[in-house]
Write a structure and sequence with these properties.
With 246 residues, the chain is of the alpha/beta class. It has 10 helices and 11 strands. The structure holds D-malate. The site of D-malate has 13 residues, from α9. D-malate binds next to α9.
Length: 246
C-alpha cells in the first residue's frame, strides 16, 4: 500500500481523504448525525436550486460568515444542535467543497481530527493500493491545521496497516516509491503526536484566528479535538453519506 499526502489536488485513482479541519470536513462529519445525505455544492446559487429540488436544509459560508438567508452556516456546532426534520443537506463552502469536487479517485472519504481513527480504519478497509490524504488549505494556501489533522489520520493508517501486515518496510521500492508511507506523509505523522501543541497551534492558525474573530471560537475548539466521533463520510455520485464499516 502507498500512503501519500498532497495539497488541494490528489493523484490517487484509488482512495482519497479530503481534510479541511476548519471547518468543512468537521461540519460534514457532524452533519451526518442529523442528515441522511449531504450535497456539497460550490456556488451558493446552485446550492439554493438543489436545496429546493431535494427539499433540503441549506448551509454554507463565504469568508467564514453564514450566507444571508441560509438556514445554517458551515458550522459543526450548529450541525450538532440542528433539530429540523429534513433528511438532506446542501452545503457550500469556499475550500473544502472545491477540493472535493476535483477528486478523481474511485473512493473519497471525509476526514479530520474529530474522526481520524475511524476514517483511517475505513480507508484501510476500502483501499486497494494507494491512500492519499488531500489537504484543503486556506484560500489556496497551506493550512497547518490540515497538515496536523492529516498527520493524525496517517498515524492511524500506519497502525492499521501494520496490524494487517500490509506495510512491510522491506517491501518499499525506494526508486518507484510505489509502496509505503511517503516522507511528506511521515512528516505529518511526526508533527501530529503532541496533542496539546497540535490543539494550540490549530487554534492560533490563520483560519482559527479568523473564525474566533467572527465569533466561531466554539467551532474551532470542537474541530481540534481528536477522535471524538466514529462518523466517516463517503462521497459518491455528488453526495456524501455515512460509511458503514464491514
Ligand atoms: C472552507 O471550506 O472554505 C472552510 O471550511 C471555511 C470555513 O471556515 O467555514
Amino acid at each position: 500500500m502507498k500512503v501519500s499526502l498532497s495539497f488541494e489536488k490528489g493523484s490517487s485513482k484509488d482512495l482519497s481523504i479530503m481534510v479541511d479541519a476548519l471547518r468543512a470536513s468537521s461540519t460534514i462529519i457532524f452533519a451526518l448525525e442529523k442528515f441522511k445525505e449531504i450535497y456539497p455544492v460550490y456556488t451558493p446559487e446552485e446550492a439554493i436550486e438543489i436545496a429546493k429540488e431535494k427539499d433540503a436544509a441549506l448551509a454554507g459560508e463565504r469568508t467564514g460568515r453564514t450566507i444571508e438567508e441560509f438556514e445554517l452556516g458551515n458550522s459543526p456546532r450548529e450541525m450538532k444542535e440542528y433539530d429540523g426534520k429534513k433528511d438532506s443537506l446542501v452545503l457550500t463552502t469556499t475550500n473544502g467543497v472545491r477540493v472535493l469536487e476535483n477528486m478523481e479517485s474511485d473512493i473519497v472519504l471525509i476526514g479530520s481530527f474529530v474522526n481520524a481513527k475511524a476514517c483511517a480504519k475505513a480507508a484501510c478497509e476500502l483501499a486497494k493500493e494507494h491512500i492519499e490524504i488531500v489537504m484543503g488549505g486556506f484560500n489556496r494556501t497551506f493550512a497547518i491545521e490540515d497538515f496536523l489533522a492529516a498527520g493524525e489520520i496517517i498515524y492511524w493508517i500506519q497502525e492499521e496497516l501494520e496490524n494487517q501486515k500490509k506495510l512491510d518496510i522491506d517491501d518499499i521500492d525506494y526508486y518507484k516509491e510505489e509502496t509505503g508511507i511517503t516522507e511528506h506523509a511521515n512528516s505529518a505523522i511526526l508533527a501530529s503526536r503532541d496533542k496539546e501543541k497540535v490543539e494550540k497551534v490549530s487554534i492560533k492558525s490563520k483560519s482559527g484566528r479568523r473564525l474566533a474573530y467572527l465569533g466561531y471560537e466554539d467551532d474551532v475548539l470542537l474541530c481540534v479535538k481528536s477522535n471524538i466521533t466514529e462518523n466517516v463520510g463517503i462521497y459518491k455520485d455528488g453526495k456524501i453519506t455515512l460509511y458503514k464499516s464491514n
